[in-house]
Amino acid sequence: MRWRIVPALSLPLALLLSACVSSHAQNNSGSSGNTDGKGDVTLNVGDQKGNDEAVLRAAGQLENLPYKIKWSTFTSGPPILEAVSAKAVDIGGVGNTPPVFAAAAKSHIKVVAAKHGTSDGETILVKKGSSLKKTADLKGKSVAVAQGSSAHYQLVASLAKAGLSLKDVKVNLLQPADALAAFTRGKVDAWAVWDPYTSQALRQSDARVLTTGRGVVNGLNFQVANPSSLEDKKKVKAIKDYLGRLRRAQDWVYKHPEEWAKVWGKETGLPYQVALDSVKRTNGTRVYVAVDKPAIASEQQIADTFAKLKLTPRRFSFADYVDTRFNGDLPPSTSAPRTYGKGS
């Protein structure tokens, strides 16, 4: 599996958390991390700093593990899926876009779990003083976006909803570090981006939201496993238990947003208020849902869009890269995400 290689980002680690992009920096190999639990089964888990390991530990869900979890930390979703495909890790958590690119590259992966959150963190930002008031106003304007990212899809979908296409705007394909600089200096009129970049820009870069991903993006994140791991009965049992712990940890996050924001900020370097904003806008709203037909259809739409844009090498059936055995009695993927209410 190969993605276009780009220079390493210069933003703080905090802003690399949700970089669900098709491009990734060099030096993405998983670093050796902690090992938890005991037993004769070891589950190798791919993670990003401040994500699954951190939340499981904060929520007390790494206690009394009847198997071992060996953690490997990666910079973003794409290299996690490279490791999954290569059998270097059994399972890893990623956003909604890396599985599309991995599947298009014929990687050995299976989506086994999903969580659904609000799309309020998926935004197109403009400066507070900008004359742009609605998406249609972007016609003829310059927009920064990371190529192949979830924000790239959101930009395409948002423009389409307003009766426009990428041909109607001046697209600046910039990774977040360069996009933030261009946006801050007024070199672009708008910036299509995701949380926690959204929360940080709103706090620190004189930004306001032109439009969000509501109604245009699916708000999904996934756990993705290697097919061979799913053929091992002992690992399947461990994976089922692991997914249950992730669900309970996500419940804890929703109930303890301030506590999680402190942990997340410490883990990643995010300022506490930015972390709390992101938790209440996006991170804490997520709930585990079934990987069902609507979820698959939604991912298929993303896959078809990127194929049409020639950002992926082929069209394919996303359903071929899904294993639904862990759905159990989980709610449908279309279930409403959680909310902290108005003024959160």
UniProtKB/TrEMBL annotation:
Gene3D superfamilies: Periplasmic binding protein-like II
Primary localization class, coarse: periplasm
SMART domains, sorted: PBPb
UniProt cross-references to PANTHER family, sorted A to Z: ABC TRANSPORTER SUBSTRATE-BINDING PROTEIN (PTHR30024:SF48), ALIPHATIC SULFONATES-BINDING PROTEIN-RELATED (PTHR30024)
Domain (Solute-binding protein family 3/N-terminal): residue spans on this chain: 42-256
Region ranges (Disordered): 26-45
Protein localization: Periplasm
Alphabetical keyword list: Signal, Transport
Compositionally biased intervals (Polar residues): 26-35
Protein name: ABC transporter substrate-binding protein
UniProt xrefs under CDD domains: PBP2_SsuA_like_2
Lineage of producing organism: Bacteria, Bacillati, Actinomycetota, Actinomycetes, Kitasatosporales
Database matches in InterPro entries: ABC_SsuA_sub-bd, Solute-binding_3/MltF_N, SsuA/THI5
One Pfam short name: NMT1
Protein species of origin: Streptomyces rugosispiralis
Superkingdom of this protein's organism: Bacteria
